[in-house]
Structure formats: C-alpha cells, structure tokens
Amino acid sequence: MDTNNLKSINDIEKVKTQQPQDLFLKVWRNKFLNSKIIQTTRLLKDFSNCCVKITEIDDHPYKEYITKIHYNIDEPLSLHQIPSSCTELYFDANFNQDISHLKSLVNHYNKPLDEGDIPDHIQQLDFLHFNQTLTEKSLPSSLLLLDLGAFFNQPLSTPLPNGLLELTLGYNFNQPISKGILPSTIVKIEIGTSFYQELLPGVIPSSVTYLNFKKSQFNKPLSVGSIPNSVKYLFLGDSYNHPLTKNIIPDSVKTLRLSKQFNHILSENFIPSSCTELIFQNDFYKPIGVLPNTIKYLKFKGDFKQRILPRSIPNSVTTLIFVKAFNHPLRKNTIPKSVKKLSIGSHWFQIEWDSLPSSIKTLSLSENFNSTIKPQSIPESVKVLDLGGFRGPLVESIFPSSIEHLTFGEYFNQPLLKGSIPDKCKVLDLSKGVFNHPIEAGVLPNSLTSLSFGKYFYQTTLTKSSIPSSVIHLTFRNEKMRKFYESSD
Length: 489
Prior knowledge:
Layout: H1 3-17, H2 20-28, H3 31-47, E1 68-71, E2 88-91, E3 104-107, E4 124-127, E5 145-147, E6 166-169, E7 188-191, E8 210-212, E9 233-235, E10 255-258, E11 277-280, E12 297-300, E13 319-322, E14 341-344, E15 362-365, E16 384-386, E17 405-407, E18 427-430, E19 450-453, E20 473-476, H4 479-487
Parallel strand pairs: 1-2, 2-3, 3-4, 4-5, 5-6, 6-7, 7-8, 8-9, 9-10, 10-11, 11-12, 12-13, 13-14, 14-15, 15-16, 16-17, 17-18, 18-19, 19-20
C-alpha cells in the first residue's frame, strides 16, 4: 500500500478515536481558525436581528448573517430580496400583500391562503388579523407551531397538518371542533376567551399533555373522555362551573387549575391521585371536600370564606398559599405537619400560639397584613420570614431564634430594639418600605451578612460601628444616604 495513503488512513483513525473536546481544542488553538470563529460569532450576534430597509439588504456587507427581518411597508415582497440566512420574517401592521416563504412567519396578514402560498419548509406560523377559511392545502405539512391569532373565527373543516406540535386558538375563536381535526402529534393546545362549544370525547387527541382554556368563557359540561388520559397540565379558564365527578379529570393530570367560577364541593376521587398541584383560581365558598393525599402544592387565589377543618388539607401538602383573605382563625392541627412553606394573604389574620405546625420553614404574610404578632406565636422551625404589611411594634422575642432571613414590608416604621432581631439572622431586608429610624451600635446581631435599607432611610447618626463587621452586602436605596455613609469615618 502507498505510504501516503497509509498515513492518511492512520490520521483518519486517530481523528475517529479522539474525543470531541480534543478536536475542539486543536481547532481553537489554531490562531487563524480561532480568529475566524470569534469574528463569525460577533457578526452573528450583531446582525442576527437586524432592522434595515428591505431595499438596503442587497448592498448590506454582512447580509449572509441576517437571520431576522422586520418588514413594515405594504409592498409586494420578492423572494430574491431575502438572504438565504434569514429564518424569521416579521410583518408589521402595514403589510397586507401576497407572502413568500421562510421558516418562521409572524404577521398581520388577512388574505385567503391557497396551496403553495406558504412553502413546505415553514415550521412556525403566527397570525394576528387573519380570519380566512382554511382549506386542506392552506397550511404546509412542515408546520410545527400554529397561532391563528386573536381575530380568527372560522370553522375548522379540514384536518390540521399532521406533525403539528402546538396550536393556539385566539380570543375570537368560537367554533365546534370535530374529532379528527386536530392531529395525533399535537402536545400543546391553548384556547382563547370566546370559546363556548361542547367538547366531545376524542376531539382532543391523546397526544396532548398541555391544555389551557386561558381566560375562556367555556362552561359546557365535560364528560368522561373529553380530557384525554395524556393531559398533565389542565387549566379550566375563567368560567367552568360544573361539578367534577369521577374520571372527568383523567388520572394523568399533575397540575390542575380550577376556573374562577368553580364553586363545588370536591368529593373523594373527583381529583385524581396523579395530581400534585391544585389551584383554586378565585373566591371559594364551599368546604374543601376530599383532596387526594398526593397534592404537594395547594393554592387559593381568591377569598377563602369558610373554616378549615382538621384533615381537610392533605398531609402531603408542602406548599400552602392563601393569596387573599379567609375569615376564620387557624386552629391547632388545621395546617398539616407536612407544610414547609405557608403564605397568608389575610389582612386581619391573627397568628395564635400553637396554631402553626413546627414543620414550617418559610412563612410569608401579605402586604395587607395588619395585626400584631405575639411572642412565641411563630414556630421555632421558621427560617425565612416575610412580614408583609406588619406595622409593629417590636417587642423582645417577637420572632423565633431560628430566623435566618427576615424581610419587613412597605408599612413598617418602628425602632429596632436590641434583641428584636434574632441572633441567627443572616439577611435583614428593610428596603421595601418607609423605615427611617436611627440604629444604635449593638442593635443588629453579629450574624448578619446582608443588610438592605429603603429609599426613605436617611439617618446621619448611622456610623460604621452601627453595622456589624460580619455584613458583606450592604445596600442603600437612598443614594444620598449611601454617599453619606461611605464618606463617614
């Protein structure tokens, strides 16, 4: 065999056995190739989202690096004007001409789509003003993402392209959807506000994992099979208010957001055991009912206006959030010992001794909170405490010694007393509100590593001896105060 050929074969075999990182380092250490890589990277960064006039592109020195073009005139667009590097073309509100092809098209177009208008390699199509009938050949088979826009409200009479992964039906859409219209490849569907049609079993393909009615007025009763047993994330919009019976929500669902209007008792097995995250969107006036012992995240976004009975919250819940008010006090054993993070939104909520379990690590009170806090009412397990609207006053041992991160809210403006900030506290945040009181030496614990003051804080008596030497991060939102402190001895 020829010696040169043998050497070439050996070189090829060496390359085959080298690790990718070794090959990269060989290329990177070559000065010429290194400079070319850096130059190309910079050009891609500088010109990938270039806003130039379409008439200027031909003479643009780096047009082969342009990947996005914004087209904002109402004139026909010729394909030869677009560089081959371009993958996304954005048509602004002025454009309403016949379209040409690219991989991604986002526009205000509103003309009928005939076969071939959109080439077969388009992957994403987003409309805004489009409201034309779709025929069998209107959309290319290459389409992966389709957003029909806020104005679309035409019957879907022919199947959407097989291969489609995501579909968004916008604000105006309110047409029946027949079985077989949505392809078996689709995984994500979002349906807009106006949709109010019966959803029969089999209409939503069994490939769908994410189904969101967004802010929809949808309130047609669901039957078993309406939601396929593939859906993991189910959001029931704003209006759905029918009792949930067994198997309406399939046992594939992990995250369930009930609608803002939903107000029914949940009986046993109505929420599947697969569910780990449950959100009540608005005011809820019924007893909680029976929830599966698999839920870890439970959130009430509206007013919660009834007593919480012991064991009504599953002992699997680790995060419990009440966004707004509830008008009954918490009693012992109301909150299960599994809860590690608790957020209370009530303005008058009173924390009673022994009402909160010793499992809680993070406790957050709302900005509306306006009650006193009694010593020993917060469990010794709490490490992170956000006081929300707490106004004070501070008394000795008001906070447990376990606190490591303490945040005061917008309305707090009370003097800090010696012993009021726990000795283990590492982060003290006073930056959110109106706090403006002198801080004497020895008031702040030597455990602090981070200290923040708000824009209202301005105390010329503050000296460097007032701030523990342990503080690494010191922040003043008041620029005048910052300059004064930095210039002080």
